[in-house]
Amino acid sequence: MKQVDDSRVLGGWSFSMGSAYQFHSWRVFVVVCALPCVCAVVALTFIPESPRFFLEMGKHDEAWMVLKQIHDTNMRARGEPEKVFTVNKIKLPKHLDELVEMQSDSANPVAKVLFRIRTELRGIWLTFMKCFNYPVRDNTIKLAIVWFTLSFGYYGLSVWFPDVIHHLQSDEYASRVKTHNNEHIEDFTFNFTLENQIHTNGVFVNDRFISMKLKSVTFIDSTFQNCYFDDVSTVGSLFKNCSFVEAFFYNTDIDDSKLVGSRVINSSFHHNKTGCQMTFDDDYSAYWVYFVNFLGTLAVLPGNIVSALLMDKIGRLSMLGGSMVLSGISCFFLWFGTSESMMIFMLCLYNGLSISAWNSLDVVTAELYPTDRRGTGFGFCNAMCKLAAVLGNLIFGSLVGITKAIPILLASTVLVGGGLVGLRLPDTRGNVLM
C-alpha cells in the first residue's frame, strides 16, 4: 500500500492515497450539507419547551416563565415594554400518569406500560380524527391537497431539472464525437488524453499507451498486437469485440467490465487500479449537478425576503395562491428551453417563485388549526408532502430523456390547481389563534 506521502492531487477539491481511496469534492459537499443539521441540533438545546408540555409534566412555574418570556418579547416588539404579564387562569391537562394509576390500583408495572401505550395510541388516533371534524374538516382536506400538489411539483422538478441539463450536455457531447475507421498504427506511443472518439476496425501493433486517459472512447472490432499499457485510466470507455494478443497491462483500470465481448490471448495484467478513478475534471457534467442545485437554492433568497416583508400586507392566501399559479406558469415556459443557460434561468425563476408558497403555507397551516390539533394537523400535511415528494421523484425521474411534454404539463397543471385550491382556504390574517 502506498504511503500518504505518495498521494497525488487529482484536481478540484480531491486527493487520493494510492488508487483505492479517492476523496472527491462530492464528499465535501455531503459534509457541508450536514452542517446545518448539526447546528440545528445544537440550537434546539437553547429553545425552551412549550408551556403545554411543562403543564403536562406538572412544571407550572416553568410554564409560567415561558409564557411571560413570550409576552414580554411581543410587548417589546409592539412598543409597549411596560405592560405587565398577568395570568388569571391556566387549564391543566389530565396527566397520563394519573390515568394509569386510576386504571390499575395494584400499579402493576406491565399493566401500567401496556395501558400507557394503549392510551397514547388512542389519544393520537382521536386527535388525528379531530382534524376531520367540524369546523376544520374542509380546511384539512384543502390543506392536504395544497401540500401534496406543491410538494409533487417542487420535488419532482428538483430531480428533473439537473437530469435534463445533464441530458442536454450529453446530447451536445455526443454530437461532437470523432469517428476513426480502419486505422493501422504501429510503433507509436500514446501519452496524451483521447476523448470522445470511436475507433472501428483498427489495428494497433507494438504501440505503447503510457500515462494517459481514455475519456468516452470506444474501440470496436479492433486488434491490439503486442501492445503495452502502463498507468492508463478510463472514464466511460469500452473495448467491444476487440482482440488483445500478447498485450501487457500495468497499473491500469482495464478489467472485464471494460472488455465487452473481447478476447484476451497470452496477455497479462499486473497491479490493476482499484476504486473509483473519476473526478470532476473527467466528468464536467457531474460538477454541473451540484452547481445547478446551488444556483437553484440561492434563488430562493429573494423569495424569502419578499415573503417575510409582504406576507402580512398582501395576505397569506394571496401569496400562497399567487406564488403557486405563477410557479405553474413558469414551468410551462420550460417547453421552450433548448439550452443549458435557459433551463438554469427557468430553474432559478421557479425556485424563487415557489419559496413564497412554502412560507405562506407553513403560516396558514399553523393558523388554521386550534392548539389541541395543530401539531397533528401539521404532521398529517407534512406526511402528504413526503408522499408527494417520493411520487414526484419516481415519476419525473423516469421521464428524463424520454419527453419534456409530460413533466412540464403535469407540473404546471398540479401547481396551478393546488394554487386555486389554496385561494379557497379561510383568510387567517389578523385572526387570534384558537
Describe the fold and architecture.
It is a multi-pass membrane protein. Keywords: Cytoplasmic vesicle, Glycoprotein, Membrane, Neurotransmitter transport, Phosphoprotein, Synapse, Transmembrane, Transmembrane helix, Transport. It is found in: Cytoplasmic vesicle, Secretory vesicle, Synaptic vesicle membrane. With 434 residues, the chain is an alpha/beta fold. The longest helix is centred in the middle third of the chain and has 39 residues. α8 runs antiparallel to α9 and α10 runs antiparallel to α11. The N terminus is likely disordered. It is elongated and about 100 Å long. The strands form three sheets. Strands 4, 6, 7, 9, 11, 12, 14, 15 and 17 form a nine-stranded parallel sheet that branches. It contains twelve helices and 17 strands.
